[in-house]
């Protein structure tokens, strides 16, 4: 859909920075910039970024033909508890779905833990008499008198938004829809989210949480989106603004206002899309994307240029990074794991004398000790400075003054003195602990996904990704790394490659062997209609592809396997091939199928999306030329811990085919790539840096 | 992979320790993903561990239930002693499900695999998982001896140089109602051992280790020292506690004496009632696991489980008492009482650390296996078998209220009503917190819940009960009041239903479960008036219940 005269703008509003990228045609970056996020009125910072890239490129906003926007506003509103006053309506007898949840503690040994705050206290948890069966038949009708009583209770509760989640509403949404209609007529000021629309999946706790989260941010996001669009329209933008979703697709502002929960974590999704595009260009079928910022590292597995997806996500964890300590939301997301390890992660020694790093972070305020902004606890960045990997005079284009002596002092004081190490020994220890924990997270994620890491290529970006990539890759057994150009604004660049898409997952329980085919086909027809109409709003007449999926598992087993279905009605002849497809995938993940076991399906999904643009392959580079670097800097080698001279090369000076043998530091405005002694690096034809581990590191 | 020179610096050792912990967690995840038993999937009822050549445990996965702590460590020692290392070959795997050697009942299979470097055994990996069915009377308390409970496999070689023992697998299949699932689970266990062994060997290669001696010594010594330091903060002394429990055919007393000395903590169960004639008896290895788990929640919870952190904790009890059940008594439901041993021993520890130990909780989960009545299958009706799990309240903490409807000490997940109703012909009409069920106190106990259930299609079904605290409540501490008793009955029934045995639910019956509440902590009169007002507003405490706090606001 992008013609050669296309001019496209992507704006990613993050917690600290707003990244803006302007692209001509398919992928020619004309300008990019980072501005500070303006929390009071985020559109101000976005407008400043837009004005800057337009000025740099000598273009005007009225020429923009495509505009993609992603924001952390939805996520932050949930984390910072800045949403609406929500009341829930559940079926009589089920007032406590939120509080009962899964009846478990997220940390086995912590007797003092507090459960996550799920936004709606019991006094605003209301019920109504009605009941559907698991098959969707009415067991108890919803009487008008019950609705009247409910309205009175809602009035008394002071609710601004309502989340309705009735039992088995995914199987029959009739009562939820009627309730919404009546409320819309009688209390037009209330925003109402119904579970059968927001997340039509079985599991009342997850469905209610998702509906609550949607209702919680809906009034805020509605206002924000309207103002944002109005502001840019006033400045001359004529094209529609599309919003980036957590699932890695784009939707219209209208859809975003209905389903604001789908906007959470759209920034990181952009990074994964960028990595997927690079994978497609470079013909890499197994990739690990590795995005490290100041506070966290985010990892995503990408197979055949498609980021791994999931249907569940956790927001606002009570104990950060501990699974199960947050509020689950069931929406289509790009599956990522996030761990508390970044440049600002704080290092220390625990009472057993063990070296620890993170998850506590010094963030940007006070920041690492070396920044001289009041930080006193050594961070990962301090250890990278001490090891010589961050060169003070080129850091952040010289905007931030670095004091290496302060880093060394902090490392010696907090770690060295307790473990009998000098400053470089302490720095080396910090680096190895944090890199091992990132590598462990990657390995664990691969195991949980039934995949292997060894054969993967790592695509590294974010401010600290290129700096730690070789160390983490070594520990994870990965031998090849790619760093894209502009790694600092990777997410915003990724937005430009996202399709317009919408995905719906719906529950309907079936055993494969005696499935009601007509029922399933009708279900799919409804879902496809709904998804198509949403996509058509953003993509107009453009062609849209339909992907049908069933989530299958052996009866009694918990792990679901995603099986693609043909894009047509299912017939009895399909059951054999589907069984075979499931068993083949099962065998791939668990080494052998289990003959004789029944197969069941609870969830069915439809994704409608515009097709991905053709990606031209990366042209071959001429013969690699090993270049002799002009400058060197001393570093502590991460392979053997000895001091060595590392080549010191600006990335901008590298031409396609130029090759550098590690150890080397390749610098650019927003980050530095460490090429360890056991790696070599070369520039490919489109400006990627490719690092290859050659296994000689320890023999130097 | 490049072989690095062996690095035994503090950071180097620590990186390797972290790696070992990651390897066992990966092993554990592999097993959970592939398992068929619902209790494994929902509760993570598995374990995985790595051991040095002497059989000392170096790392163990933190999984859903504490029942494998210690038991795995002791089982591996036993298997290693039984089968001399010099007779082992690469690819061999040993196993047993002997409740007194593995994990307290027949369903838990324990496998152990030697890890080789060249022709030398340098360590072991081990894993445990709960299998669905091993014949006998099935998972329930009705057995009269261990022989009623199903198939016991003594320590033996399950896999010889990569080749599974087909006769043994045939025997397991032939003795189970769920042969396919059992076989799937055994293969998952084998795969888990092999994956762990391969990862350990790969790690040793990567880090240039020829043995685990120096790393093992570092892990064990660091952990032991940290644990002993944590114990040193507990006042020395001898502390006693008694719990009264419902039991099966008669009420029981559980006694514990905790001796805190400089080097460790010892628990003795002398005084505890003798065994039941039904399967609620507990082998000592399992009672030890939950006892040590509870102590470690308070003393050194941040130190990983291994030979060093576990060694300072010892547990004993007279042979034949219900917490040290001897062959051949039935033990299938050993978790019913096993799960209350934390309350027992924490009652001792509270005397030493009054400000750090929570009140008693519901503790024993309401694990409710149910299936179609026999005649339903005979008449061609819908067959089903499910095992929903629900919990009561936890005890109030010294500085916070207890958690309502939350599992402790086990780590089970409660079942979702919509899933239960999708897979079985039952309807759950209510699942709500029970107001006033949390024991009053400065900090209130967690609330229990009320669940109402009928058949969905008029066909009768059977529930297998083995739950506790229907007669004796969870007690409070420091003046806190007890939580509400659990209760089971038919809505229109005259009498309450006892907590153990088989229960038939007919077409017109509405079965009502009320799970127990947790005990309160501290004097109810000291409860913050705003906290009480909030409880009243939220309906967690009623006006009548507020009397326990001195008449409400």
Core attributes:
heterodimer, A: 700 residues, alpha/beta, B: 553 residues, alpha+beta, 7-stranded antiparallel sheet, 13 helices, 28% helix
Shape of chain A: globular
Number of strands of chain A: 36
The averaged pLDDT of chain A comes out at 90
How big is the Rg of chain A? 26 Å
Total DSSP helices of chain A: 16
Main sheet overview of chain A:
10 strands, mixed
Based on DSSP secondary structure assignment, what is the total number of beta strands of chain B? 21
- Quaternary: heterodimer
Physical arrangement of strands within the biggest beta sheet of chain B: 2-1-5-4-3-6-7
Explained architecture:
The complex is a heterodimer of chains A (700) and B (553). Chain A has 16 helices and 36 strands. Chain A is α/β, with parallel strands linked by helices and 700 residues long. The two termini of chain A are 52 Å apart. The model of chain A has no long low-confidence stretch (mean pLDDT 90). Chain B has 553 residues and is α+β, with helices and mostly antiparallel strands. Chain B is built from 13 helices and 21 strands. Chain B has helices spanning 10-34, 38-43, 71-82, 166-174, 179-206, 213-232, 284-298, 307-310, 334-338, 341-352, 374-378, 417-423, 529-537; strands spanning 46-52, 57-60, 93-96, 108-117, 120-130, 156-160, 163-164, 237-245, 252-260, 265-268, 313-316, 366-367, 370-372, 385-386, 389-390, 426-433, 449-455, 461-466, 487-490, 500-505, 511-514. Chain B has a 7-stranded antiparallel β-sheet, with helices on both faces. Chain B is globular. Chains A and B meet through helix 12 of A and helix 1, helix 2, helix 5, helix 6 and helix 7 of B.
In short:
Chain A is an alpha/beta fold and 700 residues long. In chain B, the strands form 5 sheets. Chain B has a 7-stranded antiparallel β-sheet with strand order 2-1-5-4-3-6-7, with helices on both faces. In chain B, strands 8-9-10-11 form a 4-stranded mixed β-sheet, with helices on one face.
């Amino acid at each position: 859909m992008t013609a050669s005269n296309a001019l496209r703008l992507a704006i990613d509003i993050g917690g600290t920075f707003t990244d803006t990228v302007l692209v001509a045609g398919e992928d020619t970056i004309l300008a990019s910039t980072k501005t500070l996020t303006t929390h009071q009125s985020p559109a101000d910072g976005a407008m400043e970024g837009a004005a800057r890239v337009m000025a740099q490129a000598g273009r005007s906003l009225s020429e923009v033909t495509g505009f993609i926007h992603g924001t952390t506003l939805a996520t932050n509103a949930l984390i910072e508890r800045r949403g609406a006053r929500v009341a829930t309506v559940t079926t009589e007898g089920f007032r406590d779905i939120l509080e009962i949840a899964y009846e478990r503690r997220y940390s086995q040994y912590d007797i003092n833990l507090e459960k996550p705050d799920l936004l709606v206290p019991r006094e605003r948890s209301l019920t109504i008499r009605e009941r559907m069966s698991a098959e969707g038949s009415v067991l108890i009708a919803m009487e008008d008198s019950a609705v009247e009583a409910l309205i009175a209770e809602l009035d008394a509760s002071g609710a601004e938004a309502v989340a309705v989640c009735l039992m088995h509403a995914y199987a029959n949404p009739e009562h939820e829809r009627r309730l919404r209609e009546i409320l819309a007529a009688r209390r037009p000021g209330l925003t109402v989210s119904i579970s059968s629309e927001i997340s039509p999946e079985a599991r009342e706790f997850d469905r209610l949480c998702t509906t609550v989260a949607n209702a919680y941010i809906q009034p805020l996001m509605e206002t924000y989106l309207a103002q944002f669009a109005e502001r840019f329209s006033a400045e001359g933008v004529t094209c529609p603004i599309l919003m980036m979703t957590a699932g890695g697709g784009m939707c219209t502002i209208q859809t975003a206002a209905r389903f604001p929960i789908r906007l959470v974590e759209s920034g990181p999704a952009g990074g994964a899309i960028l990595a997927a595009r690079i994978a497609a260009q470079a013909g890499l079928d197994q990739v690990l994307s590795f995005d490290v910022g100041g506070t966290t590292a985010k990892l995503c597995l990408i197979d055949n240029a498609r980021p791994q997806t999931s249907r569940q996500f956790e927001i606002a964890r009570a104990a950060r990074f501990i699974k199960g300590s947050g509020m689950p939301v069931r929406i289509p997301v790009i599956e990522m794991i996030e761990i508390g390890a970044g440049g600002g992660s704080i290092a220390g020694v625990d009472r057993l004398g063990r070296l620890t790093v993170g998850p506590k972070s010094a963030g940007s305020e006070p920041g690492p000790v070396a920044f001289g902004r009041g930080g006193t606890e050594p961070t990962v960045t301090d250890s990278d400075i001490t090891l010589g990997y961050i060169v003070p005079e080129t850091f952040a284009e010289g905007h931030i003054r670095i004091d290496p002596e302060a880093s060394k002092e902090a490392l010696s004081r907090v770690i060295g003195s307790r473990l009998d190490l000098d400053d470089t020994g302490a720095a080396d220890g910090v680096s190895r602990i944090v890199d091992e924990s990132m590598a462990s997270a990657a390995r664990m994620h691969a195991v949980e996904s039934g995949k292997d890491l060894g054969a993967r290529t790592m695509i590294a970006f974010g401010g600290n990704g290129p700096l730690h990539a070789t160390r983490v890759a070594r520990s994870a057994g990965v031998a090849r790394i790619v760093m894209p150009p502009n790694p600092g604004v990777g997410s915003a660049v990724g937005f430009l490659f996202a399709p317009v898409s919408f995905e719906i997952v719906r529950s309907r329980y079936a055993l494969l062997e005696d499935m009601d085919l007509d029922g399933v086909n009708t279900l799919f027809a409804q879902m496809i209609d709904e998804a198509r109409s949403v996509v058509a709003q953003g993509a107009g007449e453009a062609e849209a592809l339909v992907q049908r999926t069933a989530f299958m598992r052996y009866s009694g087993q918990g792990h679901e396997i995603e099986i693609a279905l043909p894009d047509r009605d299912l017939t009895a002849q399909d059951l054999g091939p589907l069984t075979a497809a499931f068993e083949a995938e099962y065998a791939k993940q668990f080494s052998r199928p289990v003959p004789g076991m029944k197969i069941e399906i609870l969830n069915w999904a439809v994704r409608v999306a515009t097709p991905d643009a053709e990606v031209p392959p990366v042209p071959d580079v001429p013969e690699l030329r090993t270049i002799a670097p002009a400058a060197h800097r001393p570093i502590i080698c991460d392979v053997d811990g000895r001091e060595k001279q590392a080549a010191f090369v600006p990335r901008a000076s590298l031409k396609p085919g130029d090759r550098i043998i590690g150890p080397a530091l390749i610098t650019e405005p927003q980050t530095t790539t460490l090429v360890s002694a056991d790696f070599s690096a070369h520039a490919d034809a489109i400006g990627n840096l490719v690092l290859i581990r050659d296994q000689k590191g320890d023999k130097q | 992979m490049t072989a690095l020179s062996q690095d035994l610096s503090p950071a180097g050792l620590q990186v390797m320790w972290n790696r070992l912990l990651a390897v066992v967690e990966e092993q554990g995840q592999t097993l959970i993903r592939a398992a068929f038993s619902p209790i494994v999937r929902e509760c993570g009822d598995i374990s995985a561990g790595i051991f040095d050549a002497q059989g000392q445990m170096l790392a163990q996965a933190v999984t859903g239930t504490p029942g494998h702590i210690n038991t795995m460590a002791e089982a591996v020692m036993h298997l290693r002693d039984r089968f001399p290392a010099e007779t082992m070959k690469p690819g061999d795997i040993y196993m047993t499900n002997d409740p007194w050697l593995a994990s307290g009942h027949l369903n838990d299979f324990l496998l152990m695999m030697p890890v080789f470097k060249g022709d030398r055994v340098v360590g072991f990996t081990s894993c445990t998982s709960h299998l669905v069915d091993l014949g006998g009377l099935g998972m329930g308390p009705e057995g009269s001896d261990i022989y009623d409970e199903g198939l016991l496999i003594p320590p033996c070689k399950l896999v010889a140089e990569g080749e599974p023992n087909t006769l043994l697998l045939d025997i397991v299949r032939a003795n189970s109602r769920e042969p396919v699932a059992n076989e799937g689970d055994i293969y998952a266990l084998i795969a888990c051992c092999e994956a762990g062994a391969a990862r350990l060997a790969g790690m040793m290669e990567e880090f240039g280790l020829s043995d685990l001696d120096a790393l093992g010594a570092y892990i064990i010594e660091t952990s032991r020292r940290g644990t002993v330091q944590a114990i040193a903060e507990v006042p020395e002394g001898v502390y006693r506690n008694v719990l009264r429990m419902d039991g099966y055919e008669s009420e029981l007393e559980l006694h514990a004496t905790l001796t805190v000395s400089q080097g460790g903590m010892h628990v003795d169960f002398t005084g505890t009632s003798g065994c039941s004639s039904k399967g609620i008896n507990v082998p000592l290895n399992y009672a030890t696991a939950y006892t040590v788990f509870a102590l470690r929640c308070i003393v050194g919870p941040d130190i990983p489980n291994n030979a060093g952190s576990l060694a300072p904790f010892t547990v004993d009890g007279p042979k034949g008492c219900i917490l040290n059940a001897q062959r051949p008594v039935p033990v299938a439901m050993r978790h019913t009482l096993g799960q209350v041993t934390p309350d027992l021993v924490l009652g001792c520890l509270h005397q030493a650390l009054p400000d750090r130990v929570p009140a008693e909780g519901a503790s024993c989960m309401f694990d409710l296996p149910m299936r179609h009545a026999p005649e339903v299958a005979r008449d061609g009706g819908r067959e089903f078998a499910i095992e929903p799990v629900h919990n009561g309240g936890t005890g109030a903490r010294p500085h916070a209220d207890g958690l309502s409807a939350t599992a402790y000490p086990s780590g089970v997940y409660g079942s979702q009503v919509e899933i239960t109703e999708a897979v079985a012909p039952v309807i759950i009409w209510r699942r709500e917190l029970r107001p006033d069920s949390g024991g009053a106190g400065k900090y209130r106990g967690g609330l229990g819940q009320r669940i109402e259930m009928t058949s969905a299609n008029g066909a009768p079904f059977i529930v297998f009960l083995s739950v506790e605290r229907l007669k004796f409540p969870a007690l409070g501490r420091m003046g806190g009041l007890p939580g509400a008793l659990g209760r089971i009955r038919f809505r229109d029934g005259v009498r309450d239903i006892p907590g153990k045995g088989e229960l038939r639910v007919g077409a017109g019956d509405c079965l009502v479960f009320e799970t127990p509440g947790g005990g309160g902590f501290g004097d109810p009169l000291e409860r913050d008036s705003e906290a009480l007002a909030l409880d009243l507003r939220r309906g967690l405490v009623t006006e009548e219940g507020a009397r326990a706090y001195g008449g409400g606001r």
